[in-house]
Amino acid sequence: MGGQGAVLADEYTAGTPLLAPRRANGEVLRASMAYMVAGLGGFLVMGLLGLLMRLDQGGLMVIPPEWFYRLMTLHGAGMVASILLAGLGGLAAAVSATTRLSARVLWIALVVYLLGTGFVDLATLVGGFGAGWTILYPLPTHGFVWTMDSALAMYAGYLFVALGLLLFSAHMLYALARSHGGLTKVLALRYLFSGGRDERNALPRPPELIAAVISIDSIVAAAAGAVYLIPLFAQAAGIVGSVNALFAKNAVLLFGHTMANLSIYVTAGLVYAALPAFTGRAWRTTWPVVFAWDLIIVLMLINYSHHLYADFAQPIGLQLLAEIASYAVALPSFIVTIIGALALIYRSGIRWTAAPILLALGLWGWVFGGLGAVLDATIPVNQVMHNTMWVPAHFHTYYLLGAVAFAWGYLFYLVRALSNRGDARASRMAAWLYGIGGAGFIFMFFVAGANSVPRRYAVHLAQWQIYARIAVPFVVLLALSLAWLSWDIGARFKAAWRGTHDPTLES
Amino acid sequence: MNPHVVLAVLIALGLIWTAGWATVLLRSPRAVPVETIQKSEARVRLVLLTSFAAIAIVLFILTLRRLPYQGTRIMELGPPPVTVAVTGAQWSWILSRTRVPEGVPIEFAVSARDVNHDFGLYDPRGRLVAQVQAMPGYTNRLVYVFPAPGTYTVRCLEYCGLAHDMMTTTFTVAEQ
Fold it and tell me: How far apart are alpha carbons B85 and B144 in whole angstroms?
């Protein structure tokens, strides 16, 4: 890439409106769009399953518990996989503006990843597997209503998803390291440790730095998944008798919680990539940006254990470390990314089309969900909030109104840039309605959590049903706004796909 | 810790955040050169960083005094005179006794026979007051003082399969 990359990058960070995707590799953009469409399409289907579960919890329809837990398992696993996939696709598009990625590797990783999701579909919908997306040992082998074969299909699904993620991340790291002359340069480590004096002229663009951070943690998460799954496969084959329950819990949460966390950080990278195009202001790689993101590599891998506060067998030092890490990870995200994004918007003269509206909604949801998470990560609070609806409340907030909003915003940005067609005016209204529907929906989770309503219950007591009933109209509003946004994307998608064949794109 | 207070804190902080976020959005249409806001941006960052870091440190120190773990609780309350052995199994709770006194520390020694469960203690008003995981191969010890008599409910709060939502039992807290 050399000098040419630098020229493109300057245009990129200077926020030249909507130029970035047109400078990227057309083949990579097609793969990226496939990731985003598969991811957001999966999100829509999983969202419908969520609506069914809320109708059931509100007493407005009856789903037999066996089916409820199958759908709950599919909804959880499917959402994590879908949203992460959409984010990865967006990040590949953003990075491809300055870094040469292999479209072939991206397609192979996508196929492997989707093969995994296919196994999960089979395990739950056909095999009847319903041990929850966390597949918490030893429940998969103690289901009574599902077979060992379906548990094995679920493990296989996770294995393929982890392999797809591993392939994507390893390639991303390799490509970034090659274009920057080493991994330490992509992470700007000399710049970081010199206090911003050394190598200030060879800094990665924010999406590149973030892609490197994400890729490192993805590789660790995939390895944790393997560490979790290998003994489970061995147990199924009769090679080992049992697995330590506390070890298994740590391993599965390091895998699953990190996978879930990755989604929000991957999609935060999309904000760095797209927001400058709408505000006309550059988002530069400063020392705080490098410090924040390099720190996140470590913090994202520690904070999973705030889900183990109620496991009194976990060493107390780890419990306290989890609380410190949970607080600490919120600080760089808020001070650097959120404040940085707001500073980009403030008095910028931005035109509020659908993409920046969705990105701004994502900022709101990330912080609001983060507040709920930080409260739950406080050990005495966790005693009375954990395993209630407060938990789905916080992660639905920063998924639905954080990561997903960022991903939709980025897809709008990409489709607009490639199709040369702006979004429909009604999409702006739909984007705001998405925010209102989402906020009402997640708020009822928080209220239910504060009233001690347990999570993951197929049947709710009569006095708990009110929270789900109030949430349902908001979910319907959300579904309608998403239907409109999808239609608007769909109407311009063909033109955008053709736009990736533009001869002015690099190849 | 009262869960309603936690919700009130969330709403208060959420409103402050929403007001700040909305202010930025409402002031976005009129463009000014980026240089004119850079100083105030740096100031805002510094103020937020120092205040949030201070709040986090205070919260962490407060946490240390209110840990739910056995050692901290016994230091605070003294050795529990009553122990209840609890076993979680798909899908029922087995308690060694179903009547305990109010006002004295009670130790629940919680384990599981098959899969992970969570011993969630609900007071007579239906509010979750404490919880601990029931894990196969481990005994987790929860020490709790019941402030008032009445019928308390145990609910399973760790998803454990088909009848998870029906895995409940009750016990009586008697007046001293």
Answer: 14
- Is residue A58 within 8 Å of residue A132, measured between CB atoms? no
Q: Cα–Cα distances in Å, from B88 out to A154, B113, B115, B118, B155? A: 26, 6, 8, 8, 10
Asked if B4 is an interface residue toward chain A (Cβ–Cβ < 8 A), one would say yes
Confidence of residue A194 (pLDDT cuts 50, 70, 90): very high
Query: Of chain B residues 92-121, which have a CB less than 8 A from chain A?
Result: 114-116, 118, 120
Alpha-carbon span A32 to A94, nearest angstrom: 9
Quote the pTM value. 0.94
Between positions 69 and 98 of A, the ones with CB within 8 A of B are: 69
Q: What CA–CA distance (Å, rounded) separates B118 from B114?
A: 12
Quick one: DSSP state of residue A20? G
Is any Cβ of chain B less than 8 angstroms from the Cβ of A54?
no
Label the pairing between strands B82-89 and B140-145. Answer: unpaired
Single-letter amino acid code for the residue at A381 = V
CA A279 to chain centre: 24
Q: Measure Cα distances from B45 to A339, A420, B29, B39, B48 in Å.
A: 7, 37, 23, 10, 5
Residue A267 · residue A403 · CB < 8 Å: yes
Element (H, E) at A162: helix A148-180
Give the tokens for residue A432.
């705001």
Tokens representing A11 are: 């245009």
Whole-number average pLDDT of chain A: 92
Torsion of CA A46, A163, A403, A391, to 10 degrees: 70
Instruction: Give tens-digit pLDDT for A458-498.
Output: 999 999 999 999 999 999 999 999 999 999 999 999 999 99
Task: Note whether B49 contacts A281, CB cutoff 8 Å.
Answer: no
- At B52, the amino acid letter reads F
Mean pLDDT of A393-401: 96
Contact B94, B87 (CB under 8 A): yes
- Please, which pLDDT band fits residue B40 given cuts at 50, 70 and 90? confident
The distance of Cα A406 from the centroid of its chain, to the nearest Å, equals 10
A371 CB within 8 Å of a chain B CB = yes
Q: What span, in angstroms and rounded, lies between the C-alpha atoms of B144 and B154?
A: 14
Residue from A3, A9, A22 nearest A272 by CA: A9
- Answer whether residue A504 shows pLDDT above 80: no
Q: Is the Cβ–Cβ distance between A179 and A100 less than 8 Å?
A: yes
Binary contact (A387, B158; C-beta < 8 A) = yes
A347 interface with B at CB cutoff 8 Å: yes
Peptide bond into A408 cis (omega under 30): no
Q: Which helix (H) or strand (E) holds A494?
A: helix A465-499
B-interface mutation test, from A134, A316, A359, A381, most B Cβ less than 10 A away: A381
Separation CA A156–CA A470 (nearest Å): 38
Nearest to A336 by CA among A173, A186, A206: A206
Identify whether the C-beta of residue A101 lies closer than 8 Å to the C-beta of residue A25. yes
- From chain B, the residues in CB contact with A139 under 8 A are 115-116, 159-161
Asked whether the beta carbons of A362 and A411 are under 8 A apart, the reply is no
Please tell me which of the candidates A316, A446, A452 has its beta carbon nearest to residue B126: A452
| C-alpha–C-alpha distance, residues A115 and B11, integer Å | 42
Candidate from A288, A349, A368 with C-beta closest to B17:
A368
Smallest CA–CA distance, residue A147 to chain B, in Å, is: 13
Which among A68, A461, A84 is positioned nearest to A258, based on CA atoms?
A84
